[in-house]
Specification:
The protein has 101 residues and is mainly alpha-helical. It is built from 3 helices and no strands. The longest helix has 37 residues.
């Protein structure tokens, strides 16, 4: 019976963590476009790109651990997903490829 309690706790954690992370990720993805349009310092979007990458890696690493896999597997999957966002029509991180910094 004890194993079922642990599994339920892990399932609750897995449901709560990504939803907050996805909301934050969406907000940060929109900010670089606004920053470039406003003519701000070009290092600010670069820092935000790094925040997005690290946040996604941490969340996916946590999700992988909850699913019983090594954290590095989730972090690698986050990199693959972020690298291919343009294929899904999300162009929020396209500026990182052309960033002069």
């Amino acid at each position: 019976m004890e194993i079922h309690k642990v599994a339920r706790i892990k399932c609750r954690m897995a449901r709560k963590t990504p939803s907050a992370g996805i909301l934050l990720l969406a907000a940060v993805l929109l900010y670089p476009a606004i920053a470039f349009a406003a003519g701000e310092d070009p290092s600010i979007p670069l820092m935000l790109y790094l925040v997005v990458i690290l946040l996604a890696a941490k969340l996916m690493g946590h999700l992988a651990v909850v699913l019983g896999q090594p954290a590095v597997l989730g972090e690698l999957l986050a990199g693959v997903l972020l690298g291919n966002l343009h294929l899904a029509g999300v162009h929020g991180l396209d500026g990182i490829a052309t960033d002069p910094g």
